Amino acid sequence: MSVLEEKRILLGVSGGIAAYKSPDLVRRLRERGARVQVVMTANARQFVTAMTFQAVSGRPVREDMWDPRAEAAMSHIELARWADRLLVAPASADFLARHACGLANDLLSTLCLASEAPLIVAPAMNRQMWAHPATQANCKTLSSRGVHFLGPAEGDQACGEVGPGRMLEPMEIVKRLEKMIEQS
Ligand SMILES: Cc1cc2nc3c(=O)[nH]c(=O)nc-3n(C[C@H](O)[C@H](O)[C@H](O)COP(=O)(O)O)c2cc1C
What we know:
Strand content: 15-25%
Structural class: alpha/beta
Number of helices: 9
CATH architecture: 3-Layer(aba) Sandwich
Distance between the termini: 17 Å
CATH class: Alpha Beta
Shape: globular
Number of domains: 1
Bound molecules: flavin mononucleotide
Mean pLDDT: 97
């Protein structure tokens, strides 16, 4: 039995090309018994549809802070309390910057401020974006606040470059998450 059994994972998906791997991540988490609630940013919808996530997670996807029906069913604060873990994969440079600044200007960033659950991020971006001093400073700030980083990995990138910035593969994220929970 996996330590993920019955764990409530709020999976944030931000707007990076690696979002195409996130439905597979949902499948792997659910195979281990986790309950997965997906929250997408507006930009993530450019890469993958909410319908895909709904199909693989078995739950309606939360996309918008200003959705009266979703808010009535489970308010964003209830959703923040529901989560055992917040996992953002892919975590874009923009998401990392917003959270480092404490912004709460969309549903995902608001949930990250409103939740007491540990936050785990799997960054994914072009190697120059990852190496940029602004991104590195944001990551340092987030690490100092207890945010856990999974990756990024190094290798071929969607943009044709090679270097650090790739999102870890879904199975690797799951394995590291399990290890983290075992050690907590
Ligand atoms: C084709 C394309 C691919 C992109 N891939 C990434 C990426 O892998 N990582 C990243 O940080 N930003 C990427 N971006 C830029 C983000 O989508 C942009 O910074 C956006 O503001 C992120 O918003 P979000 O964090 O709210 O989802 C990409 C943009 C385009 C047009």
